[in-house]
Amino acid sequence: MTTTQALDTSATTLLRFATAGSVDDGKSTLVGRLLHDSKSVLTDQLEAVERASLDRGRSGPDLALLTDGLRAEREQGITIDVAYRYFATPRRRFILADTPGHVQYTRNMVTGASTAELAVVLVDARNGVVEQTRRHAAVAALLRVPHVVLAVNKMDLVEYAEPVFAAIAEEFTAYATRLGVPEVTAIPISALAGDNVVEPSARMDWYGGPTVLEHLETVPVSHDLTGCPARFPVQYVIRPQSAEHPDYRGYAGQVASGALRIGQRVAVLPSGRTSTIAGIDALGQEVDIAWAPQSVTVRLTDDLDVSRGDLIAPADELPAVTRDVTATVCHVADTPLTVGHRVLLKHTTRTVKAIVKEIPSRLSLDDLTQHAGPGRLVANDIGRVVVRTADPLALDDYAGSRRTGSFLLIDPADGTTLAAGMAGAAFGGSAAPDDSPAAGDEGWDF
Q: Could you write out the three-class secondary structure of 90-129?
C-alpha cells in the first residue's frame, strides 16, 4: 500500500458525510473498506492495523480498526466516539464522521450528522430495519440532511439474495419518506468482502446502481450560502485604542450565511438599531464584500452598542426576534428534560437563561405518531418543546438555515449539553407558544 496520491484539490468539491446504523451493522468495517480500497490509507497505518489484527487472532487485517481509535472501542468491538477521517479521490474531497451505533451514544450521531450533507445508514441484511435504524433516520431528517444512503450490509450472509435487499429498501424508503427525507439511495453491499463499496460486485449482477464511492463522488452538493439572507453573529469586539488606530471599532465573527457589502444597510439584533457597513476587513485587508463562511471584521458608520452574541443582518431581511422558542429537540443527556427545567440556551455566539415552558409532544419512532403531553424527555427522545428565554433571540427557522436555526440547551450547573434544538416545524407538526409568563424559581421567572 502506498501513501495517498497528491491531488489538485482546487478542482474538486468537498462532501461532508456521516455513517450511522445499529450496533454490529458494520459501520467501521465499511469506512475501513472505503479508505483501504480507495487507496487512502498510509502504509504505516495499514501495518499497525495488521499487527493489531494478528494480536486479536485475525488471519487478515480488521479494517474496522482504521476508525475505532479508542482503546475501549477496540476491546469491545464497537464505536463510542465520533471518528473523523479526511480523504480524497481525483473527483472529490471528503470529511467523514463515523458515528456510534449503540443507543447509548445516539448523542454522538447528532454531533456527527449536524454538518453533514449526506448520511449513510447501514442495515444488517439479516436483521432488517430495527429501532435504532429508525432513530438514525429520524435524526437525519430532523437535521435536514439532504441525501441519505441506505447501505444494506452483510449481503454475503444472505447469499446475495435480491428479495432480501428489495424488502429492506422498500421498508426503509417508505419510513424515510414519511419523515420528509428528500432522497434515499439504496445500495446492497458487503463491507467485509468489498462488494459494491468501491468496486462493483460480480456476485450481485441484479443490481445496476452505483457503488458507495461512486455515489459519494457524484451526488450533487452545494455549499453556496450566498443566496440566503446574510447573518453575521458577532463573536468579538475589536477596540485597539492604539496610536495607529485610535478610533477603530470592529465586530469580528464568521458570516453564517449570505453576503455582506460595504454601504449595505443593516440592523443589529436583538436591539433593532440600524446602521450602514462602513468597511469589511479580511486577513488584514479591506474588502468590498464578505460571504459565508468567511471570518471577517465588520465596521459600522455609527457607534452602536454592539457586543458578543448580537446578530448583524440586512435591514430588509431580518429574522424573527422572540423570547418564545418553539422547536424540535433531540435530548442527549442522561438527566431528563422536564417542564420548568432551568437551562442555558446557546444560539450562535449568544447564550441566555431560559425555562422549558412546555413539552407538547414526543415522537414515537415506531409509527411516527406524536404522543401528547409526555411530561418529560429522556435520553435519545425526540420531542417538541417551547422555551421562554430571559432575553430576545434573533432566530431563523431551521428549515431555512441550519446555522442560525439551531441551538443547544445546556445545564447551567455543570455545563452539560442537554438537548440539540431545531427551531420551527419538524415532522409536519408544530406547537404555537402562548403569551403567558413562564413559571420558574427565583431569578429565572421571565
A: CCEEEEEEECCCCHHHHHHHHHHHCCCCEEEEEEECCCCC
- Measured CA to CA, the distance from residue 266 to residue 389 in angstroms comes to 24
Closest Cα to residue 211, out of 332, 303, 293, 89? 89
405 alpha-carbon distance from chain centroid: 12
The Cβ-side half-sphere exposure at 71, using a 13 Å CA radius, reads 0
Contact (Cβ atoms closer than 8 angstroms) between residue 81 and residue 61: no
pLDDT, tens digit, 9 for 90 and up, residues 402-446: 889 999 999 999 999 999 999 987 654 333 333 333 333 444 554
If 0-12 CB within 10 Å is exposed, 13-18 middle and 19+ buried, where does residue 246 land? exposed
The model's pTM is 0.79
Q: Residue 441 contacts by C-beta under 8 Å, 6 or more apart in sequence? A: 342
Residues 249, 433: Cα–Cα separation, whole Å: 39
Within 181-272, strands assigned E span 184-188, 232-233, 236-238, 250-254, 259-261, 265-269
SS3 134: helix
Output DSSP code: residue 227: T
Q: Cα–Cα distance between 334 and 345 in angstroms, integer?
A: 18
Question: Strand, coil or helix: what is 268?
Answer: strand
Tens digits of residue pLDDT in 353-401? 999 999 999 988 777 788 899 989 998 888 999 999 999 999 999 988 8
Q: What distance in Å separates the CA atoms of residue 137 and residue 121, rounded to the nearest whole number? A: 7
CB atoms closer than 10 angstroms to residue 19:
33
Contact in structure between 103 and 130 (CB atoms under 8 Å): no
How far apart CA 29 and CA 326 sit, in angstroms, is 40
Closest CA to 298 of 240, 360, 255: 255
**Residues found in the chain:** 446
What's 415's DSSP letter? -
E strand intervals along 56-91? 83-88
Alpha-carbon gap, residue 138 to 150, rounded angstroms: 13
Q: How far apart (Å, rounded) are the C-alpha atoms in residues 373 and 395? A: 25
CA distance 397 to 196: 38
Task: Report DSSP state, residue 156.
Answer: G
Q: Kindly give, in sequence order, each residue whose CB lies less than 8 Å from that of residue 222, ignoring residues fewer than 6 positions away.
A: none
Spatial CA neighbour of 356 closest among 333, 368, 364, 369 = 333
